[in-house]
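Troubleshooting: if your tokenizer reports a length mismatch, compare your output against this known-good record of 521 residues.
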Amino acid sequence: MSKPANMQDVKVQEGLARLLFDHAGTALGTNMLNGLLWSFAVWGSLDRQHILVWFACLAGITLLRLMVLMHYRKHNPTGKHLSLLINLYTLGALGAGVTWAVAGILLINTHDLALQALAGFLMAGMAAGAVAINAANLMTYFAFSLPMLVPLTPLLVLEGGRIQLVMAVMSAVFILVMNRAVRQTHETMRRSLALGSENASLVQSLGSELDERKKVEEALFMEKELAQVTLRSLGDAVVTTDLDGRVLSLNLAGESLTGWSEAEARGRLFGEIFRLAAVHSDIAIAEDPIANCIRQGKPYSHGTHLQLMDRSGMYSYSVELTSSPIRDRSGKAIGAVAVCHDVSALSYAASHDVLTGLINRREFLIRVEHAVSNAHTDQAEHALCYIDLDQFKVVNDTCGHSAGDELLRELTSLLHEHVRDGDTLARLGGDEFGLLLPYCPLQKATQIAESMRKLVRDFRFNWGGRVFEIGASIGVVQINKGSTDVAELLRAADSACYVAKAHGRNRVHLYQSDDMAVTEH
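Known-good structure output:
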């Protein structure tokens, strides 16, 4: 473990250590179970004395790792003590990896294709499972997986057979894929823990999400082991198609994401099952990911997140999509496999305000940018409202920030109930909100802004027996084909809001480019 730069780094490193040791029991139990299964599988094929010695080594190393785990759980160490335990646990993982490498070498040296295939499957399965279990500490993961995987490629190449050569290539590719997967998983864990330490109000939510993530990863790991699936299907929707793009198979994750069962989806076109569109758009993507990867003869990945609508049309997900051609032994494409990764949770955390649950300023500006683009292409008219609460500072100064936070939550709930379907209400910061009204002429937008103002004016906030009245100053600006710059639109709406506040507060002001009051502001 590197020396922490500040208290946040300390908390992040302790959190990663906690995740590592939380998974340790599963890792050790699975390690011994796989050792028993391996010994049973090769009992009649290898020297029994060698098998017993090998299993004794595995059991001894597992016992030492268990002692480290029990010490951690008993003492809950920090600082250098924690670093020492992680290093010892990593050393034990290295010993286990070397022990499994010996098992693989023994199988390869039998020159029996079936046993060699068992070696490849066993090493790949153990390494794939370790992603979910050891991703919290990269050194632990690589100490366990690299000794198992690295010897496979040269040993299989030395066997000289065609199938062994294919297995060697697959082993090398698998190492690269696993390297990327574990680094991405580790980075996701690290960022989640960092966010939790920065904002105390997020700790409980993030802890719940991490616990749920751990449960899902453990469930996916056990399902993968039992069903003998590959890493690409771990938690992701996986669909295979023929050359015409018609579905051949759909895994359980795909069924859940799309709303189609495998039996119903089989024989239908990929685009009918996976209804993909650009984010914040109902327009389907122009390119066909299945046709693209088959035509190009190589894996295809869409450059940005996509929106996937399920069969019912009620739920949508933010996803990452990759597709690859499936080839026969001669190298001829016979179909394709597509992997759809749900990133909705990460997308939500990055685009929403923690206190109110509304979208945040960054996401709001993205949607305004989409509205500007739409105004250019479809000649549509939209409207942007900038809402600034009046007298909010009085509540904060009189009753404290807890009261201010509760006021914002109650007002958010009130306003959200009265916006139209398709409208976007966002918290821009502090006591400032934004409202995007798509396909809304300026006159209608002014009426909506006025109704919002009245809602806030009639609202009464009760805190500790005291009742507060607040108001809202609202600036309204039109989005049309002449609009070009999102930042300029927001400045215009802010300026109009300032004029409304300067002219007595609790009123709506419509932005006009030749408005002298706005010009003076």
